[in-house]
Amino acid sequence: MSTKEAFIPIRKNEAAKTIRDKYLLSPFVLKCLRLHIMDEFLRLALDLIEASEKHEHYRDVECINLIASEGLKSPAVKEMLRLSMDLESRYAEGENDLDGHVKKRYYQGQKYMTIIENCATDLMKTLFKCSWADVRLVSGTHANLAAFKGLSMATKNNKMVVTPLSCGAHISHDYTGLAGMVLGLVNIDHAYDAEEMTIDPDKSASIIRAAKPGIVTFGGSLFLFPHPVKELRSVADEVGAYIVYDAAHVLGLIAGGMFQDPLREGADFITSSTHKTFPGPQGGVILGDLKDERMEKAIKRIQYAIFPLSTSNTHLARLPALGIAALEMRVFGEALAKQTVKNAKTAGQYLYENGVKVLGESKGFTESHQIAVDVREYGGGRVIAERLEEANIILNRNILPYDDQSNRENPSGLRIGFQDVTRRGFKEGDIKHLCDLMLQVIKAERRPSEVKEDVLALRREFPEIEYGFKSLKEALDYIKKT
Ligand SMILES: Cc1ncc(COP(=O)(O)O)c(C=O)c1O
Asked: How confident is the model at residue 8 (pLDDT cuts 50, 70, 90)?
């Protein structure tokens, strides 16, 4: 493909294309094919193609997405992914140096791959103002695996202080998940203040002093307010613990300067996904600063935990798109993060004023992209999430800090994220309109199937993706003129 062809912008208003424009096969042709195919294996292949196409239309065009852990890629990031398909077949096993750059590879043909990985690394280092990054992680869970394994080797200590699962930690921090079952780490819980919806710094200081862990973690999946990193830095130093801040949910807000800046507050490492509020391709990253021998030891151990311990191929095809997402966050990140938090706060206030219990009321409901809502009196999180799904509003049930931890089937809560709708252009008035539709379902004032018509109409009002480049050409034009 020539460079000229490669940069033909994708059609404007892609989201609004009709189902028939987008599909390889018309519904009529599909029906005829299905009648004629006798081979079960071929039928399965056809089912798969059809379901994949339908999924794209359903989730990208017909639904309003409020899942807090999902991101929305710009047309430029998607275009970069489409143009990186050769990398999807390649390998680049080997070691990196202390700048995070490629040092040694065990395969030939690396001429451009090395440049791509180094550029993606440096874009992330510059964006997050740190001297070391590793972009070889294929997910946020993988980033946690490498960080926890590396640091437990560096400290020869298998204890880790973590936020309790019911108070927002990710399963990979927990003794029932990666940390305990795969890495054999022992969890000691932070003290969590369910009124403040954050970690209690004084009580956690005593816990850390008593437990003497090798790792103290912050960050999480239900994450409304900043965690006390600053307050607990010196306590971690007293016991020789490294601080790992899991920014999977809030990385885009940090890039936009709208959430706490963990590395400046004293975290040693950030681990993260690259596809939630940071709107890149699915992947992971670890960030840190090589400022002294203690950090050098830790970085070397983490690098060892990445390769050879936990990677072979590193899903290289996502790296060019990761770099474009980093560029977008530098250009649009502040405005995007500001509006995302504003939209989340607006929804918290509006739902609260309309009689729904929203957590964190005394602190303005949230400082992040998400809110937590207690819908026990309306049937619980599972029931309401399923009813909202019938109305094409997609979100997830969530366990709340005061819930029984084992009741994952029907917990009290919903976790609602606003990063997707913000990127589609929703402002405060649109958020209130969306909340009205949600309230009608939550309070069973209208049937979900009726509300769905209004959801589809609202979704149609936002065909474009904002706060990003509309094409790679637009990104290149920006680079050329700046
Ligand atoms: C706090 C946190 N860390 C890590 C992860 C795992 O990320 P990934 O899905 O990229 O493995 C998640 C997932 O939502 C998360 O919420």
From this structure: very low
How do residues 369-397 score in pLDDT, each as one tens digit?
A: 999 999 999 999 999 999 999 999 999 99
Asked whether 219 lines ligand 1 (CB < 6 A), one says yes
In sequence order, what are the residues at sequence separation of 6 or more whose Cβ sits closer than 8 angstroms to the Cβ of residue 335? 256, 467
Measured in degrees and rounded to the nearest 5, phi and psi for residue 245 equal -110, 115
**CA–CA dist 218, 162 (Å, integer):** 7
| Residue-range domains of the chain with CATH | 1-62 (no CATH), 79-322 (3.40.640.10), 331-460 (3.90.1150.10)
Give the number of C-alpha atoms closer than 13 A to the C-alpha of residue 351, restricted to the C-beta side.
Answer: 32
* SS3 category, 60: helix
Beta pairing, strands 393-394 & 64-65: parallel
Using a cut of 0.90, tell me whether the model's pTM lies above it: yes
- 319-353 and 472-481 helices cross at what angle (nearest 10)? 100
CA dist 75 → 8, 69, 186, 423, 476 (Å) = 12, 20, 43, 12, 13
Q: What's the one-letter identity of residue 87? A: L
Residue 15 has pLDDT above 80, yes or no: no
Protein residue with least CA distance to atom 15, ligand 1: 221
- Please give the span between the terminal C-alpha atoms of the chain, in angstroms, as a whole number: 28
Q: What is the pLDDT of residues 131-144, one digit of tens each?
A: 999 999 999 999 99
Work out the number of other CB atoms within 10 angstroms of the CB of residue 445: 11
| Among 416, 401, 409, residue whose Cα is nearest residue 356 | 416
Asked if the model's pLDDT at residue 18 lies above 50, the reply is no
Give residue for tokens 């081979």: 39
Cα radius of gyration rounded to whole Å, the chain? 23
Q: How far does residue 453's CA lie from ligand 1's centre (Å)?
A: 33
- Residue among 69, 182, 370 whose CB has most ligand 1 atoms within 8 A, to mutate: 69
With a 6 Å cutoff on the Cβ, whether 249 touches ligand 1 is yes
Residues 389-447 pLDDT 10s = 999 999 999 999 999 877 888 899 999 999 999 999 999 999 999 999 999 999 999 99
Cα dihedral 470, 472, 474, 479 in deg (nearest 10) = 140
